[in-house]
Amino acid sequence: MGDSYKKAKEAFVSDATGSSVLHINLISLVALCSIALYSALSSRLPSSRPIQFPTAWIILVFPLLLSMTLFANHAAFLSLLLLAPTALLLLLPRQQSGTPLPSPSSPRLPSAPEPQSRLAPLASLTVYRAHMMLMTILAILAVDFPVFPRSLAKCETFGVSLMDLGVGSFVFSQGIVSAIPLLKDPSYLSAPAGPKLLSVTRKVLPIIILGVVRVLLVKGTEYPEHESEYGTHWNFFITLALLPILQVALHPVIKRVPPALIGVMVAVAQQMTLSSGGLQKFVLDAPRTGLISANKEGIVSLPGYLAVHLLGLSAGTLVLPPSPKYFSRSLKAQGRPRRSSNAAPADPRNSLGAPRHNDKTAIELCSYTVVWWTLFGLSKVFGIGDGVSRRMVNFPYIFWVAAFNTSFMLGYLLLDLIFFPSKSVYSQTSKLKVPVDNLSHPSQQQQQAVPPALLEAINKNSLALFLLANVATGLVNLTIPTMYTSDFWAMVVLSVYAFGVSFTAWMLRSRRLLQL
């Protein structure tokens, strides 16, 4: 790779000013429409195993690629193309796959105790995380081709773009799954910090190594680099590895203060240091003369990413357990003195094996969505932070990422409630009362939506696929002058790349390779 091409490529991906929030929402809406089509198809027509993967790829992956390339400026039209067959399918009768309500003569089976430490899977969360990862994987290679609009590439300093959103969404999603150990054992927050820090450091050590290896490879192969993203040596892998460590350091605070409130406070502190503490001027104007100034973007943006991570953690405590109030009730129970063995049994609502209340989760998510969009809107009205900046991860960026992700998580959850409603739900206010212990089989207690197998496979090995995508992106850029590739050949390369990553996920769907 010649020096002139390297400089031209760096210029090609630099100085972008971004798009609009509406435009990015319309592009992202294609993902919701694709899952709506898939849900309508799977709930109305019988599935055929031999064509399961090709069908899923065409419906769930290829539209995402089109939305950020050929249809980037016509995303609403692409959504309509997906919604039209969805509407037709909804005219067909739903396949009967539920179990009947129990009759008084039904034989009772002894109920096995539900594991108390196992979180029931939430299909909408799996779909959200898989689609977020797919958008990220597709964009990191697509951005190197002219078929990918420059308005969707990472902004130089201020502005909103699809790729700017992807970075924050990755961190937000990481925060969601980091809630799992806290939900399984709330006393983990009170455990000694030393062993926890050692454990999480061992867990993220491979990510740190990958970050270091990436620096060495970029510097050693004349690979085009964009210093103003994270700095000269810093990269996203380093940020991703440090966030779980910082979260563990905050456990004593999380035990007493809701994670959402901590995230807001960190976001406010981040903006104050940028505006009043001179860090914004440092990032924009300071020459790269030492190790710290050379990596100023990565260092300064870290607290902002921590705020995004904490807001994701807060969302995780809402959507992962059976009830959105589960985590707060568990923390309150931890603070109460232990009763004698003859005391009344624990509240069944505080069991991870309890039936899900997705309607309550949707309401709670909706309230958080309104709060985050309001804070983002206020930052725009009052000019806080001089605009959205992924480079510095300022106040507007933090709440734009949080608002977007909670909105789309809510969208996926609503699709589950619409396409896969529970057949038998026991309600205290319902005229038809079916006590839970009268159900002949656990599956009758609540019918759960099942995520598409391809998206479940992508979510299962998301980190490994992300690393594979980074390697593939590097190889493509080292062998093809992507900047000068026609739209036709760009789509051929991108389609093969998207199919290859998806097929790898499909073949590995029975095992998990890496976990952060």
Topology record:
Blueprint: H1 3-12, H2 21-44, H3 52-67, H4 75-89, H5 123-142, H6 162-177, H7 180-184, H8 193-221, H9 227-230, H10 236-249, H11 251-254, H12 259-275, H13 279-285, H14 291-294, H15 296-319, H16 326-335, H17 358-381, H18 395-419, H19 442-445, H20 453-460, H21 462-479, H22 487-507
GO cellular component, one term: endoplasmic reticulum membrane
Region (Disordered): 329-355
Pathway: Glycolipid biosynthesis; glycosylphosphatidylinositol-anchor biosynthesis
Mind explaining what this structure looks like?
The longest helix is centred in the middle third of the chain and has 29 residues. About 10% of the residues have low confidence. The protein is 62% helix and 0% strand. The protein is mainly alpha-helical and 516 residues long. The protein is globular and about 65 Å long. It has one domain. It is an enzyme of class 2 (transferase). A acetyltransferase, which acetylates the inositol ring of phosphatidylinositol during biosynthesis of GPI-anchor. One of its GO terms (cellular component) is endoplasmic reticulum membrane. One of its GO terms (biological process) is GPI anchor biosynthetic process. Keywords: Acyltransferase, Endoplasmic reticulum, GPI-anchor biosynthesis, Membrane, Transferase, Transmembrane, Transmembrane helix.
